[in-house]
């Protein structure tokens, strides 16, 4: 009996060890960045790129932004994959900050945005953008920091069931889903509308998929996009600008590249 018990314990230890090793390998191999994202990390063409303790900061070289935008990466996506999005936001006049997450999972540090926000007291207005899991965590963070953010933009994402932002009267929320996104839970995305402020824009972007909100290549379970990566990133940039009131609102129509 004791011999059999030792065998069971040994076998269990092997299985658990293999599972732990698989998890470590999975976490150590994040998605991206693709070549375009790597190029976007280089300063130039009027954009300054700085490495900070919390991630990467992009800003226009010729001005001091009064608005900051924090970007929460998707789960297990290399944060550098959002460099094209951050660069586009900087070209629009914002300081765009991509935050690194422990093990690539925003859920492990939901209030990571606190550090860059506190480091920039000169910025008077803040927005936060989250992709996929990063969006769900961004919504959780915003709910815990009432009044801090002027805008929340959710890309292929929605707030968790435990987060209700419907009474946040001063918060501008935009939630975008792609028509070619076969990773997002479309039913949960639609149901989450009740947990957003009444004036929120919830829209489907024709041709957009899940992965192209970032720049990390293809993603398992996703479908091929019907628009270019550049067009999809431009739509995300315009969504932030509209949520902040820096572009005219689109009403209930689907966002499109300006």
- The CATH class assignment is Alpha Beta
Q: Find the CATH topology.
A: Rossmann fold
> What is the radius of gyration?
20 Å
Examine the secondary-structure arrangement and name the CATH architecture. Answer: 3-Layer(aba) Sandwich
Strand segment tally: 8
Strand order in the largest sheet: 1-2-4-3-5-6-7-8
The structural class is alpha/beta
Outline the biggest β-sheet.
8 strands, mixed
The SSE order reads HHEEEHEHEHEEHEH
- Terminal Cα span: 73 Å
SS field, number of helical segments: 7
| Proportion of residues in helical segments | 25-40%
Low-confidence stretches: 7-28
How many domains? The number is 1
What global shape is seen? globular
- CATH superfamily label: Alpha/Beta hydrolase fold, catalytic domain
| Overall pLDDT metric | 89
Concise structural overview:
This protein is α/β, with parallel strands linked by helices and 258 residues long. The chain is 31% helix and 18% strand. The chain has one domain: Alpha/Beta hydrolase fold, catalytic domain (Rossmann fold).
Task: Please supply descriptive tags for the structure shown above.
Rossmann fold, 258 residues, alpha/beta, 8-stranded mixed sheet
Write the layout of secondary structure elements.
Elements: H1 2-28, H2 35-40, E1 47-52, E2 55-60, E3 67-72, H3 83-91, E4 95-99, H4 114-119, E5 125-131, H5 133-144, E6 151-155, E7 172-178, H6 186-191, E8 201-205, H7 229-243
């Amino acid at each position: 009996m004791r011999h059999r018990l030792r065998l069971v314990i040994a076998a269990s230890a092997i299985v658990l060890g293999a599972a732990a090793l698989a998890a470590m390998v999975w976490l150590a191999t994040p998605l991206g960045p693709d070549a375009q994202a790597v190029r976007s990390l280089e300063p130039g063409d009027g954009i300054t790129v700085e490495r900070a303790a919390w991630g990467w900061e992009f800003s226009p070289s010729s001005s001091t932004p009064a608005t900051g935008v924090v970007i929460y990466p998707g789960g297990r996506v290399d944060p550098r994959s959002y460099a094209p999005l951050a660069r586009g936001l900087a070209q629009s006049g914002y300081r765009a900050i991509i935050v690194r997450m422990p093990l690539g999972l925003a859920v492990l540090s939901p209030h990571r945005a606190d550090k860059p926000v506190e480091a920039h007291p000169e910025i008077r207005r803040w927005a936060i953008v989250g992709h996929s899991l990063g969006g769900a965590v961004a919504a959780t963070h915003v709910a815990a920091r009432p009044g801090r953010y002027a805008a929340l933009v959710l890309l292929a994402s929605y707030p968790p069931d435990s987060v209700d932002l419907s009474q946040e009267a001063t918060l501008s929320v935009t939630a975008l889903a792609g028509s070619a996104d076969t990773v997002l839970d479309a039913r949960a995305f639609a149901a989450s509308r009740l947990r957003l402020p009444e004036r929120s824009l919830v829209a489907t972007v024709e041709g957009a998929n899940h992965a192209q909100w970032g720049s990390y290549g293809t993603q398992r379970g996703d479908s091929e996009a019907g628009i270019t990566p550049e067009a999809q990133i431009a739509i995300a940039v315009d969504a932030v600008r509209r949520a902040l009131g820096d572009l005219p609102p689109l009403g209930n129509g689907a966002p499109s590249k300006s």
